[in-house]
Amino acid sequence: MTTRRSFLQSTGSGFGYLAFSALSALAAQRVGAAATNPLAPKASHFPAKAKRVIFLAMQGAPSHVDTFDYKPQLTKDHGKDARGIAKLLGSPFEFSQHGESGIPISELFPHVAGHADDLCLINSMHTDLPNHPQATTQMHTGNFQFVRPSLGAWTLYGLGTENDSLPGFITLAPPNGAQNYGSAFLPAIYQGTPIGRQARNRFVSQDKQAAVSNLSNPRLDRDLQRVQLDYVKSLNMEKLKHDKHNPEVEGIIESYELAFRMQDELPDVLDIAEEPKSIRKLYGLDQGNNYFARQCLSARRLAEAGVRFIQINHGNWDHHRNLVNGLRQNCGEIDKPIAGLLADLKQRDMLKDTLVIWAGEFGRTPHGQSTNGRDHNNKGYSLWMAGGGVKGGLRYGSTDEHGYQAVENKVHIHDWHATILHLLGLNHEQLTYRYAGRDFRLTDVHGNVVKGIVA
What we know:
Blueprint: H1 4-10, H2 15-34, E1 52-60, H3 72-76, E2 81-82, E3 86-87, E4 95-98, E5 103-106, E6 119-126, H4 132-141, H5 151-159, E7 169-172, E8 193-195, H6 208-211, H7 222-243, H8 247-270, H9 277-283, H10 291-304, E9 309-317, H11 323-347, E10 354-360, E11 363-368, E12 374-377, E13 381-386, E14 394-396, E15 398-399, E16 406-408, E17 411-412, H12 413-423, E18 433-435, E19 438-440
Parallel strand pairs: 1-9, 1-10, 6-14, 6-17, 7-8, 7-9
Antiparallel strand pairs: 2-3, 4-5, 6-13, 10-13, 11-12, 15-16, 18-19
Helix pairs in contact: 1-2, 7-8, 10-11
């Protein structure tokens, strides 16, 4: 009986069998690689300006013309017809210049304004769609049509982590939709680890044992946990050996190992109870149990412990109505904590190599909606970055006089992603992963590094 193996050996002078052998060897390498640490630090493509990212993601669409995009003409034209749609709505908030750079910032951010000279403000952002689900997904993954790895997952895949006892990518109070911090076709170990919930005063407990309660097993001591884990790992390795290639199993193997290591370190890192009163006051924790302040302080601790990508999420930035009170409340919840985070990083000499990002998924219209609100606007909006190799005290790009669309030095979401990777020492065109017969990357076939904001 002629077997497939003997047929390959005899056909074409054995070249078919050589190819088969090479594939078998590659599969064996994959099995061996699964036993190593895929999160080990990796060399960047070129010297990096940023070692880590803290991404402050505002879910919804913060109104740029009421926060960081000063439009005096909009105020002058308040009440006039706007493009035949509705009447222009001048900002109800005062803007003033701050820092030596003189960046105009809304009265909504009095504490962040104190760091104006650290901010790199991009006033010319634009994205493809003005709908929340698609725009949110594009902000996090670069694509709103298909399931793709998130920015944090690509970062971790490209650079690894500095602490193999902690996840390299953590999302605090995770956003809606696991896709927005997922790894898609990248190995599962690169997806974000969600911690906490988006509910006021319900973030990580002061009690470090309760901080990550699902990591430890009270019924088994550490030695018995190790025995159990080794047995499960042996079963998974047999499965992987049989399948030759199974990214999900590879991810499970390392995820279990990481969870075992995490139970010793993560609760201590997330325990902010021992932080000095001066630090707690810096973040505004002396004024009550502000859940966002706890997140920001936890983010600094995670960054200090070696986590590569930390994402903090804050919701309800969708002010179709109640613009004035809604913005005051939202900005009041985040202003002092963010300022505290910037100050804390700076005094620890960490801001220079920590890229802090504040962004929503798009902006809002200059015309009013329901007399006290604004509609969605993807044609022009603002975000800012600080530290990590960007130019501080800079306003880059601009929208038109009413803030409706980007007109100067336009920055698309793909350009922004390419720039973030560049600051991390990664060439967005070279950071690829082979899947389904083609090489994929965060920016797909798009994106240009915005060199004008790189220090």
